[in-house]
Prior knowledge:
The complex is a heterodimer of chains A (92) and B (251).
Chain A (H helix, E strand, L loop, with lengths): L1 E4 L3 E4 L4 H17 L3 H18 L1 E2 L10 E3 L6 H9 L7
Parallel strand pairs in A: 1-4
Antiparallel strand pairs in A: 1-2, 2-3
Helix pairs in contact in A: 1-2
Chain B lengths: L3 H19 L3 H56 L3 H61 L4 H45 L14 H9 L3 H18 L3 H6 L4
Helix pairs in contact in B: 1-4, 2-3, 2-4, 2-6, 3-4, 3-6
Amino acid sequence: MIVRISGEGQFQLPDEDGERLNELDNRAVAAVEQGDETGFHELWSQMLELVARDGNALDDDELVESDVILPPRDIAFAEAKGEFTGEGLIPD
Amino acid sequence: MPGLGGRMSTVIKSKISRLLDRAEDPGETLDYGYQKQVEMLQNVKKGIADVVTAKKRLQMQSSKLEQQVVKLDTQARQALSQGNEELARTALERKTLAQTELQSLDQQVNELEAQQVQLTENEKKLRHKIEQFRTKKEVIKAQYSAAEAQVKISEAAHGVGEEMADLGLAMQRAEDKTETMRARASAVEELEAAGTFDDITQLGPGQDDIDRQLQELTSGAQVDDELSKMKAELGQGGGGSPALEQGKENP
């Protein structure tokens, strides 16, 4: 699977990682909903670590769509909250 | 994925399709997108320059305040050695205020400095990304004009469209952050301008906010401490002037 970290680039990950990533992501969302900032950052770094450990960066001249796009590395807790309550990270 | 990644993916992907559907010629859209990115980068650069300017002005303000602290201290000593304890106290009160102000100002300057470094780093990264995007869009345009298999183009166009949407987001964030910094810097500046300390010799009986604050501090322990220290110093140094003795409260 292809994962993009927003503002950074794309990475090729083994498909099996999808499930793990999804699980972490869901827990991160739960943390956000509970207002658990520490928990959110902890899970968020685990997600980034997973991509860093298993992922191979795609070459610059590869033009493919990502399966998953993760928010920017330095996403703030408030931004993460905004993603679910407001118009999201990218207003139109 | 319904979570962070899912939401993010949905938002970007919907942006891509809108982007690609809009134009008959993807090449034009990509060129336009590139042009937009370059413009946004200019805005970010301008924003950073503004933050730097604001920081420099605050630094100047800070060194003025430092001079003010020294001056007020000297004035307090002079007043005390002439036996005018009231004036000495006022000078020391103002000095205390100036010192507090100076402390918070220096902290603000340091914060601006750190943010500026981050913004500049970010700007550099974005510039590199935009350069990459320029190359990629040329690849797509070449494919398009060569009228290769439509499917392949579409795939690549989605790839580059994603890149473009993502870059747009990164630029937006960079602009927002720079704007926040700029606003913070000018807010501090305004506060500074409003609270600039005048020379104590200009202190007249008109009185304003500062004076009200001064009165609150009148019984401040710090001022009392400094005053008695100063008295002691002057007493040791010059053998004590009669006027100074009068200034003390005798039981």
